[in-house]
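Hey, I was hoping to borrow your eyes for a little while. I've been staring at a protein lately and its backbone has me curious. You're getting the sequence in one-letter code plus the fold written as tokens. Would you mind checking whether the tokens look sensible for this chain? Here's the protein in full, and shout if anything looks odd to you:
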Amino acid sequence: MNHWYQQLTKPSWAPPAWIFGPVWTVLYIIIAVTYGAAVYLFARSDLPWIVLLPFLLNIIFNIAFTPLQFRLRSNFLAFLDIVLVLLTLFWALLAIYPYALWISLANIPYLVWVSFATVLQASITWLNRAR
């Protein structure tokens, strides 16, 4: 893990660093299967473009988080990004619900984790605002 990040002040309830790898591994499997299914539905013309859009935006914002947090070392930009991850995920799950309920339900763990991660990132950003 990045030495800079290890030195940041974190809330007492922050999970240990080792938990992030296994959690994200499971979540990325869920994301790959369900987002792949959404793309498949779109390719079959069973899903309009506007329903696929939040899935695509969510992936872009998800991928952007690590460089913002660890390369740019910007807690604030990482916080803005995780909020966009949360908002696009919520939008995606609402949008896909009428077409494929199972995709919405399968992503509930992702929604719960991103909600937690958003609060955690907000806390880290606030606690380290002087850095």
Observations:
- The radius of gyration is 16 Å.
- Residues 20-43 form the longest helix (24 residues).
